[in-house]
Amino acid sequence: xxxxxxxxxxLLSVRQRRCTYDSxxxxxxxxxxxxxxxxxxxxxxxYLRLLEGLxxxxxxxxxxxxxxxxxxxxxxxxxGLSEDTMGRRFHRQDHPRLDVICHSREPIIFxxxxxVPDPFDGLLTDQTLSGKRIHxxxxxxxxxxxxxIGALTADAIDSTAFDALDMRFLSAIGALAGAEMHTTxxxxxxxxxxxxxxxxxxxxxxxxxxxxxxxxxGASKPMDRLRREIDLVARSDFSILINGETGVGKxxxxxxxxxxxxxxxxPLLYVNCANLTETLAESELFGHTKGAYTGAATERIGKFELxxxxxxxxxxxxxLPPSVQPKxxxxxxxxxxxxxxxxxxKRVDVxxxxxxxxxxxxxxxxxxxxxxxxxxxxxxxxxxxxxxxRIDDIPLLAGHFCELAQRRVGSGRFLLHRQTMxxxxxxxxxxNVRELENIITRAVLKTSLGVTxxxxxxxxxxxxxxxTDRITESETATIHSVKIGAKGGLTLREAVDKFxxxxxxxxxxxxxxxxxxxxxxxxxxxxxxHKLARRLNVK
Length: 539
Prior knowledge:
This protein is of the alpha/beta class. The protein has helices spanning 2-15, 21-38, 43-54, 96-103, 167-196, 205-211, 221-234, 250-259, 278-286, 303-306, 325-334, 360-365, 371-377, 394-409, 418-426, 432-447, 473-487, 492-510, 515-522, 526-535; strands at 62-69, 72-79, 89-91, 108-110, 136-144, 147-156, 240-243, 268-272, 287-288, 300-301, 311-315, 336-337, 346-347, 351-356, 380-383, 413-416, 456-459.
């Protein structure tokens, strides 16, 4: 591939009637860009090297390399743009300049007085420039043959920055960038093919998930670790227990495992066990015959039968009624299901993925969950990190949610102030990614009143509402358990003790067994917490 790139540079030099110092400088720049690309191993590094090399030739303040996916452009690398830019998706219908670039076969330099808004206005990193509107903009469509695969953009505050640029030189740069992106696509395609044969590349999972539309976003170390674990377990057929607080994205992890498994061309079905009574749970999972119980007017096929050959995701598995747990165990052990109202047994081949935000070990000790079922499900536990352990991912996620909310509002361009981003990073995020999405969405809605199409709106820290989503998964679980206790006829003292006991256990678990940290979270001195725990038989 890189021989081809150097050949392009050679042709460019041959076309010059006279070898001036200026043309030699251009050829030298292109050669350095091509050589830099050869020394980079991963796609992200190659893309960033391309943009940094571009700076030698083009006096830009910001540049971006975007991939075209149908009518949406996603940022693969950016220089001089805010952190949240990487999480944004630019729809061609909403950004006329990008649409013009995508419809062209040649590089385009937009007039400095063009009235068409620039997609990156307000997103520059430099504080001295962040409040100014971009005046100069150029764009280069990137092709692989006749197929549009991406776009290269550069922006400058100086209205004359791009006036003297050679269009042939820009075309050569576009050819370099297009060849680089196309080659990267080919490499990824080969890696995906290798994955299907059982030869899985370490860093492939993120790209696979994005290609399949799964927004498991994040580039932090905890997320990289999680993707490696997903990569490991996806190849097997073992049952997987996904642990994590409310709002961390356990369903996305389940989808990622299924997408990377050998069952990915068969269904992934979802069941929320927390919403099921005993009768409904049996009917939902195993099906029923007509007249099996009062109200069963027709026959029903259960989720296990529907998912035959595929995957079944059992969310909130800790809430499954105890009477149904033996039947689930039978399916896991024997691969057999039996509808309500019949003695017939049907064999099924279903992989089980289960998720919980509760401490199942504690539930086993208290008799609320079968120990044999727990061990069947817990062949390989996966822990999804809470947002407070992946603060580095907040800019990317915030930008993504901001863009989604912006499209729902339908008018305006919403930008996140630097202080707003710092406020988001300092927050503890008890509600995790779901809470972040809710807060960003509310901020966009609150600031969208009276905003016209294309108008820029900067979201400030005071626009954030961080008070309504502060209930944690521990609180949710324990409150739910008290409700169950009330139905079971507990006295007030018993219910209070039950709530306190479970809340302490959940808090200690959330703090990884650190009782001092749990005490600080609960507002209790460590010694008093230990005394309370002993009284409640917690320790």
